[in-house]
Design brief:
Keywords: Acyltransferase, Repeat, Transferase. By secondary structure, this protein is mostly beta strands. It contains one helix and 24 strands. The protein has one domain: 3 Solenoid (UDP N-Acetylglucosamine Acyltransferase, domain 1).
């Protein structure tokens, strides 16, 4: 993926971290492609645990609307012509790749991380996390309020119904719905 630095991030974009840090240091890790449209009201911040290695790479003509939160300590790649609706949350501590022409509706949660919980004698918040990369291929539509969990691959041309919880891979050209999400129909791909 080749990304250029000709697009802009509006000056009022909120880049927030747990510890105070110069804007220029954080800004070096946000790469925006040509004609990008990033809202002035998004929040990009590091995950509260671990190093600050958060890197956000946006392709050409990517649109991210108001009140989207991007949080983590790893790399997020959003390819050309993709869209993220208001109030969505992306938590990236392993790796998340979003393909070309992907539509992500409002209030979607995409997280490559889970909390550990097996040790009943220790509070869950102190048990650490597990991570596994997420891959969303080209031409995917993710409906309002859907949840995409760690380790999932969503195949090209798939549709994720509103409020679905995706816990397993979605085959190419599938329409999935439910909790947990299951294939309810196949699309005919050209």
């Amino acid at each position: 993926m080749s990304l250029k630095m000709k697009a802009y991030i509006r000056l009022k974009t909120i880049i927030k971290k747990v510890h105070r840090l110069a804007f220029s240091i954080v800004f070096k890790e946000v790469f925006v492609g040509d004609l990008g449209n990033v809202s002035s009201k998004i929040i990009i911040k590091k995950f509260t645990l671990g190093k600050n290695n958060l890197k956000v790479h946006l392709g050409k003509n990517v649109t991210i609307l108001d009140y989207v939160i991007i949080q983590g300590s790893s790399s997020l790649y959003i390819d050309d012509n993709s869209f993220i609706g208001e109030f969505s949350v992306i938590g990236v501590n392993k790796e998340i790749k979003i393909g070309k022409n992907v539509m992500i509706a409002q209030a979607v949660s995409i997280r490559d991380t889970d909390h550990e919980f097996r040790n009943v004698t220790k509070p869950m918040k102190y048990q650490g996390i597990t991570t596994s990369a997420i891959f969303i291929e080209d031409d995917v539509w993710i409906g309002y309020g859907a949840v995409i969990t760690k380790g999932v691959k969503i195949g090209k041309g798939s549709i994720i119904a509103a409020n679905a919880v995706v816990t397993k891979d979605v085959p190419e050209g599938s329409i999935v719905a439910g909790v947990p999400a299951r294939v309810i129909k196949k699309r005919v791909l050209d």
